[in-house]
Design a protein that fits this description.
By secondary structure, this protein is α+β, with helices and mostly antiparallel strands. Helix content is 35%, strand content 21%. The longest helix has 42 residues.
Length: 401
């Protein structure tokens, strides 16, 4: 069958613009207004969405009630991210988004989702959004967006199913990692609550090493990479895609060994979401050496304290709030030089530290394995996606079904 090209409007039952105002927050609400900040990576980050009441949800969805199978597309700040409405159907379009309802007789919704995440379509979207002070697409631009020729529906479903298997496993791993994080954090909280810790300035227990300043010319292909501020997730945790290949000089003590802790020293977010966050850095596939950038500090325990216990300290809410109270600056926030060493850290007996370390070590190793597997799966998915969408690789339709 010949593939036919068509506009996005022609393959959707409806395309509906969002409300052009900010949804009021209800901290006890069971619904979410999902705007562009919560759509990074083409998945909904609910910690970035606005929690809203049932009344606000009804008002924000009066034009069309979102349902599973719908897609939410960001048309400004930034342009391009697309996410799927979850099975709970508790999501309302936030500002600068457009709600799409694909016509199931013309296009598979998951195929359309993967099509819009592809490098080709994302590049075309960016080109069409240029030409103004703030890159954006009008709703008319979204409707008129021309799609590449579409394969028959059975083939669309087969392609989406193939990519979906990989994404399902990645999501399963993500949930398992989150569970491990919660288990380790809960055990650490129990430990420092039940065993009457003494409070010692962290500088007496650790060494703090400043990261490396670098020049843009040194960011070139290498087996060494810089761990940068982009390696710190604003909600906590480590992001491997924040690494930058680096060919410049560094000191031996600026090398981060697998499992060591770094703390963000600066922040570009308005809400101080990154500064002071402690993150455990795993081994990196594709790089032999990891070096801390100037925006980070490596914190190493003195002899006797297990690294797992130090991780508990640096990821605790107490340490986070201490750091947030010791920042300066407006556009760029900077952590005070003495913030880390002066924090009064809760310290339990060495025996209890070792017990916690034994508990946490196996779980953290498992977490590293899951995240490494997810990275491999995502690399495979990203390599397959353009090949499947272009037809250069074909999926047997009957086998996929």
């Amino acid at each position: 069958m010949t593939r036919a090209s068509r506009t996005l409007d022609s393959v959707c039952l409806r395309i509906v613009d969002c409300e052009h105002k900010t949804a009021p927050v209800d901290t006890d609400g069971e619904f979410f207004a999902v705007g562009t900040p919560a759509m990074r990576g083409h998945r909904i980050n609910f910690s970035e969405a606005r929690r809203i009441s049932a009344e606000t949800f009804a008002a924000w969805t009066r034009r069309m009630l979102p349902m599973r199978g719908d897609l939410l597309f960001a048309r400004e700040a930034p342009v391009g991210p697309i996410v799927r409405i979850p099975a709970r159907e508790n999501v309302a379009p936030g500002q600068r988004t457009v709600l799409l309802r694909p016509d199931p007789e013309q296009v598979d919704t998951d195929y359309l989702y993967y099509l819009f995440t592809s490098p080709r379509i994302q590049a075309e979207v960016q080109v069409k959004a240029e030409g103004s002070t703030v890159p954006h697409l009008n709703v008319a631009d979204v409707r008129a967006f021309e799609l590449p020729p579409l394969p028959p529906l059975p083939e669309q479903r087969a392609i989406a199913a193939t990519l979906g298997v990989l994404d399902d496993k990645i999501e399963s791993n993500r949930r398992a990692v989150a569970l491990i994080e919660d288990l380790v954090a809960a055990e650490f909280t129990r430990l420092v609550t039940e065993f009457e810790p003494t409070y010692v300035p962290l500088g007496e227990l650790t060494d703090v090493v400043k990261g490396r300043s670098y020049k843009s010319a040194e960011l070139e292909q290498s087996t060494t990479a810089l761990v940068t501020l982009k390696s710190i997730d604003r909600n906590g945790g480590y992001k491997a895609d924040g690494l930058k290949p680096y060919s410049g000089p560094y000191k031996e003590n600026q090398v981060i060994r697998p499992g060591e802790m770094v703390v963000a020293q600066t922040d570009l977010t308005q809400g101080a979401e990154v500064v002071g966050r402690g993150v455990r850095v795993p081994a990196a596939a594709g790089f032999e050496t990891l070096v801390a950038s100037l925006d980070l500090a490596i914190v190493r325990p003195n002899e006797g304290m297990p690294i797992e216990y130090l991780r508990g300290l640096l990821t605790s809410e107490g340490f986070r709030q201490w750091c947030r109270s010791r920042v300066t600056g407006t556009t760029v926030l900077h952590l005070a030089k003495d913030a880390i060493p002066t924090w009064p850290a809760p310290v339990v007996a060495h025996r209890e530290q070792q017990r916690f370390a034994s508990f946490a070590r196996a779980l953290l190793d498992r977490m590293d394995s899951l995240e490494a597997e997810s990275h491999r799966l995502a690399t495979l998915r990203d390599a397959l996606l353009p090949e499947l969408l272009s037809g250069r690789i074909r999926v047997p339709v009957d086998e996929a079904a």
